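Hi C.,

You asked whether I'd gotten around to modeling the 159-residue construct. I have! Everything is below, sequence then structure, no commentary in between.
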Amino acid sequence: MSYFHRCLLPHCPCKSTSPQNADVIDIEPSTAISAQDAEVETLVYRCAWDTQDSPCEMFIEGTHRQILSHLRQRHGVVHNGNEELQCLWSSCSTDGLLKMGSFARHITRHLGIQFRCSQCELVMARDDVVRAHIRKIIGCADAAVELVPGPGARRIVSA
């Protein structure tokens, strides 16, 4: 028998329940709300944006929109397509600056997120590359792009 507990965070809008052995993690409030009504599972990843030897460690969704939103709201990174920035992810070995327009895609690489063709199971780091593959390969014309979660993904449990 599984025992479930209500969210322990005071004033949390999520109203979720979780298994008794679940970890309580710090997630963006918008993620908690969207996970409550989600028809598919919500996956989150630990943010390792590091300023002054202090990684963030908040859990964020791995979508480009949520990554950019988190970087803007929590780390002051302004979204400007022409601006170039240095990646401050704790494990990043990229030298030089990255264009803001490709920054979220860069962060998904840190998260280990990949995409797969549902027909031939080709796995690539970028969803647009898998889409191009599906358009190009006749045997994959009816395929879908499937998300392959990164190794640090955590599933948000909500009821």
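If it helps when you're writing up: Confidence is low (pLDDT under 50) at residues 1-6.

Thanks,
B.
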